[in-house]
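Quick entry between incubations.
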Amino acid sequence: MECDLVNISSTNMTLEKTKNIELAELGEFGLIKRVTSQIKIKNESTLRGVGDDCAVLNYPDRKIVVTTDLLTEGVHFNLVYVPLKHLGYKAVSVNISDVCAMNAIPRQITVSLAISSKFTLEAIDELYEGIHLACANYGVDLIGGDTTSSLTGLTISVTAIGEAVEEDLVYRSGAKPTDLLCVTGDLGGAYLGLQLLERENELFRLNPTVQPQLSGYDYILSRQLKPEARTDMREIFKSIVVKPTSMIDISDGLSSEILHLCEESGVGCRLYEERLSFDPQTKKMAEEININPLVAALNGGEDYELLFTIPVNDHDKVRNHPDITVIGHMTKKEEGAMLVTVGGIQEIPLQAQGWNPIG
Amino acid sequence: MECDLVNISSTNMTLEKTKNIELAELGEFGLIKRVTSQIKIKNESTLRGVGDDCAVLNYPDRKIVVTTDLLTEGVHFNLVYVPLKHLGYKAVSVNISDVCAMNAIPRQITVSLAISSKFTLEAIDELYEGIHLACANYGVDLIGGDTTSSLTGLTISVTAIGEAVEEDLVYRSGAKPTDLLCVTGDLGGAYLGLQLLERENELFRLNPTVQPQLSGYDYILSRQLKPEARTDMREIFKSIVVKPTSMIDISDGLSSEILHLCEESGVGCRLYEERLSFDPQTKKMAEEININPLVAALNGGEDYELLFTIPVNDHDKVRNHPDITVIGHMTKKEEGAMLVTVGGIQEIPLQAQGWNPIG
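Done. Structure below.
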């Protein structure tokens, strides 16, 4: 991982730096030049990138997928403990993850920023370092955007564009009863990484001489601060000759995503608690704050793994795959979307966590 | 114009309404359903719109253009005097205008919103009314977006996608010395509309019993509050058999846009003051606040007209066209970008207005 995790104590320093070069001095066009000068176009489909009223793309024999996500300070991130480079990386990842959830190949992104006067040019550079690193890692071109001011805080809006041949595209709506429900990677880590950051930040706030205790938690911190979109799964599906019948990425939490697949596909589901396994750091942190890691997986979100269904006949193809876990199966709609607890003792209806627009 | 101008005194009432239905009650998914339920796909190129991880588009024999703009409360708009419906409309228009500046046909948009808790559901509905109206008027499909909360204020991020055959596309970079510099419509109105709104708002703030005096200023108010992108120009160019050599839309002011064309095309320019004519309301308001309407045109921005160059041999084709005014001509780069004052008395270098990231 080229983008090292920065520890909390150095993070918010970015904002306190002497304003060596003022943003106002540089101006909008100067800033745009600065942050786009290093862009080298990587994809054939990008005919023109930044520098005109629009970018120009060319997709003569592919379908195009488009997705967009908006991150706001104080709601999606807290700059006290989120390094700007990571934030830039994550803002790209969460969009690339949506492209992956269509089984498509990401190709281009646009990035729009609203920046308040508290940000130095160095801070913006750091944010763009993360954005450029993500573009490099995912092989996507930054083709446009908008840079503007805001009265308070930072807002980042990213749009990602990708491609696929029609027969490769996977929607949310194709799951059939009896299909197996599968997930990539492990869940709950991103949420528990956030809990750790918030706890240590609170302790630091109460007593600034206390050094944050983050060692031994690299994994869950990286899950929270620098999530990686599963761009690898498209190739994996190809290599094991499996095409998911439905797919979604896990941004809001497993419960909510399962309910989306059920609703869009018109099916029910049984999720087996005992099929979910957790990373040791996830388990340790869950224990420390006295919650069940299952709750973090179901409701925490931000894991950016892929949740998908496959025909039951493909079970052997995924059974021992290191990146894939079968966690349940789809049912008829009338049977509902249920969590089956360990040992099959209880069946509990899955519930989507409410989103709170009040922030 | 279906979207009537609302007068100031009723505008900010939107935010004060009883919160009949709380946003929190409805939740994110409820809100998305509510604002997307009326969408009917209009374009063949939109294979799938909202409802999955990505929208899916199909452009087998066209180039695709992509642009994005971000509007933030307090910087780009003041909700005290900007009706939300107009704001929604304008957020779409400014992006469609960029598509027009490529000589392309707009087809799809995504809309992302960050909303603070001060907004009622009715306010969001009003904003979307304007967005949907713009989609209807411009024939574009709303294919996706993100709706999230913000700690303060409203942020709107729109991405627009359009299409063109390669030979129709017009970039900023094709102007040649001797090309004629042309503009559509008239300039300065949007800026003076804003000055009027700000003046009346200030008077209203000082004495709330004073009714805002807006009558007789419909034109400049509509230029500011509900700008229309020049989607008509593509057909006009076709009908008069003119293909611009370079083009840009006027969002930042004529000076700044001319300088963009000069820089990207590697040419200079002479803009003749006497070639610019102004709407009577623009002139009247300029007089009232004691500025030269020329200054509003050069530095005001937000007119969303098209600025373009054509070969000098095409002069006869545009000479008497009601939508097109020849305002100058391009020169060699060494001659600079100059404003020639009335009667040719002075040549003044054009200057881009600084953008102030401090807001």
